[in-house]
Specification:
heterodimer; A: alpha/beta; Amidase signature (AS) enzymes; eight-stranded mixed beta sheet; three-stranded mixed beta sheet; globular; B: mainly alpha; Histone, subunit A; two-stranded antiparallel sheet; 2 strands; 4% strand
């Protein structure tokens, strides 16, 4: 019997299509694996019936000789930031606990239309604010990985930490993520899986709980570049309900995958060689260059001079947008209401938001409110938006010299849960390599590369030109084929 | 620039988040650390730089000028709109009495 839970998106889709096994068998295996992995805390709610219903629909469609969708028969995890009709959607916050959307997000609807089913709603950092999955109201997510010789629970990264854990632990073949400043790529790197954030506007934001709207992008997380290409095709597409949605056709990324990089130039940004970066990360970066050279690419040194300002600019822009977006949680229309006896409307707002938001969310709302307030707007917010222009121009200049950029995804490997919670700033530095591409709206991907000596995975990041997801995926494929990354966490849960 | 407890209290009030003394005191150094760190943006001469408005060039579209252009977001959805309200009453969102 095939061990279904070791299969990825492509294997499942092709196996179901050719009749090697049924979608129902696959869904049942993953439902059982999910139920058996409660100690990872990857899911906030599980939806085995949704997975089974989608599987049965695929099996029936196949029996009737109908054309099957791109994701037919593949059960996936859904980050609990996507509104799912009739299934609680919380953004891992108390303020949305019990919120049951009356509508389906465009991205999840696209996936169901492509034949995928839902295993459950995945845990995340509260409102996607965090880099370790320690800010969820529903508890930390444990990475399936542990350092050799240690039982300490490790961070799966964040904010898409439930997604990264589920895919790495083989309790889901793939999962949705969202990336505002690295929330797909950093957790993918921490857990030895792939994840791609497409060009801003490729995936509709409609029905995705908003964090920082000018940065938020959805994308797939899976264990191979091919699986990411397939799932991104299913997720992406023009949506008139999102004003920033790109009115462009979705390319056939899977069909055009090619690891032959002859004639391509790969840029190595010198400013990414930063103090405080682990030696293991720098070694893996060098290894990545050698792999891409072997695939036929020419390696060129490039400069992205405003790199060091990207992260502080992000920590003005993202909280500013968040403070505005999160104003909607008022205890009136949905979610939590905290109304002490005799309290008025204003008290109700303040009490509800005090009870409903976690510490990190409050911190960012306060920062955002401050930088947008009268007298400070120019010094902070406007200056940050100007820096954003400069970061974006750095990339535009780089594209005159190269086709794709290779960089580390993170400055360190995963760390034990609880080890970085003393200082919010240290946590923010996790995204130092991820944020510049976010500010510029560029497609960027993390692929697993090497392992540290104590048994933790490391990822490499590829950043591409606007709309060139193909170039990113192809370079990712070239690394994947040469890295031969086959390590999987040993089951302890 | 740095913030003191009084300023944090003012921001918290603008943001409609109730905070006690202890929480305000805890927030002061945390916010100051972050603000001090973002100060470095001031080093960059941006006098000739336009602030970013759209990260990927795009044009705003107009929807068709018809009723219920998108049935999903059009009218006639009162029950769905109120379904998650903490205190829906008589087809409206209920709030505490406001007397000015």
């Amino acid at each position: 019997m095939t061990e279904f839970t070791t299969l990825g998106v492509k294997d499942i889709r092709d196996g179901v299509a050719s009749g090697d096994f049924t979608a129902r068998e696959v869904a049942e295996s993953f439902n059982a694996a999910v139920a058996d992995a409660a100690s990872l805390n990857a899911f906030i709610v599980t939806t085995p019936d949704h997975a089974l219903a989608a599987a049965d629909a695929t099996d029936t469609a196949r029996a009737n000789g109908e054309t099957l969708g791109k994701m037919a028969g593949v059960p996936i995890g859904m980050k609990d930031l996507f509104a799912t009709q009739g299934v609680q959607t919380t953004a891992a916050s108390h303020i949305l606990e019990g919120f049951t959307p009356q509508y389906e997000s465009t991205v999840s609807a696209n996936l169901w239309a492509a034949g995928a089913g839902m295993l459950g709603k995945l845990n995340l950092d509260q409102f996607a604010m965090g880099s370790s999955n320690e800010t969820s109201y529903f508890g930390n997510v444990s990475s399936p990985w542990r350092k050799e010789g240690s039982n300490a629970a490790m961070s799966p990264g964040g904010s898409s930490g439930g997604s990264s854990t589920a895919v790495a632990a083989r309790i889901a073949p793939a999962a949705t993520g969202t990336d505002t400043g690295g929330s797909i790529r950093q957790p993918a790197a921490f857990t030895g899986i792939c994840g791609i954030k497409p060009t801003y506007g490729r995936c509709s934001r409609w029905g995705v709980v908003a964090f920082a709207s000018s940065l938020d992008q959805a994308g797939p997380m899976a264990r191979s570049v091919e699986d990411c290409a397939i799932m991104l095709e299913a997720m992406a597409g023009f949506d008139p309900k999102d004003a920033t949605s790109l009115n462009m056709d979705v390319p056939d990324w899977e069909a055009a995958l090619s690891a032959d990089l002859s004639g391509k130039k790969v840029g190595i940004p010198r400013e990414y060689r930063m103090e405080g970066t682990d030696q293991a990360i720098l070694d893996s970066w060098d290894q990545g260059k050698a792999w891409l050279k072997d695939a036929g690419a020419e390696i060129v040194d490039i400069s992205l001079p405003h790199t060091k300002y990207a992260l502080p600019a992000y920590y003005i822009i993202a909280p500013a947008e968040a403070s505005s977006n999160l104003a909607r949680y008022d205890g009136v229309r949905y979610g939590l209401r905290d109304l002490p006896d005799g309290a008025g409307l204003q008290d109700m707002y303040a009490e509800t938001r005090a009870a409903g938001f976690g510490d990190e969310v409050k911190r960012r709302i306060l920062i955002g409110t401050y930088v947008l307030s009268a007298g400070f707007y120019d010094a902070y917010y406007n200056q940050a938006q100007k820096i954003r222009t400069l970061v974006s121009q750095d990339f535009e200049k780089a594209w005159e010299q190269c086709d794709v950029i290779l960089a580390p995804t993170t400055p360190t490997p995963s760390f034990p849960l609880g080890s970085l919670d003393a200082d919010p700033l240290t946590m923010y530095l996790n995204d130092v390599f991820a944020v510049p591409a976010s500010l510029a709206g560029l497609p960027a991907m993390s692929v697993p590369a090497t392992m540290t000596t104590d048994g933790l995975p490391l990822g490499l990041q590829l950043v591409g030109k606007p709309f060139d997801e193909q170039g990113v995926l192809n370079a990712g494929l070239a690394i994947q084929q040469r890295a031969g990354f086959a390590a999987a966490p040993e089951k302890w849960w | 620039m740095s913030v003191d407890k009084q300023t944090v209290a003012k921001i918290a009030s603008l943001a409609r988040i109730k905070m006690g003394d202890e929480e305000l005191e805890r927030m002061v150094p945390e916010l100051n650390n972050i603000l001090e760190w973002v100060e470095q943006l001031g080093e960059v001469d941006t006098s000739d730089v336009e602030p970013m408005t759209a990260v990927i060039p795009n044009t705003l579209r107009l929807r068709e000028d018809v009723i219920d252009a998108d049935p999903l977001t059009a009218g006639g959805k009162r029950e769905a709109v109120l379904a998650n309200a903490p205190a829906a009453e008589h087809g409206f969102f209920g709030v505490p009495k406001v007397i000015e």
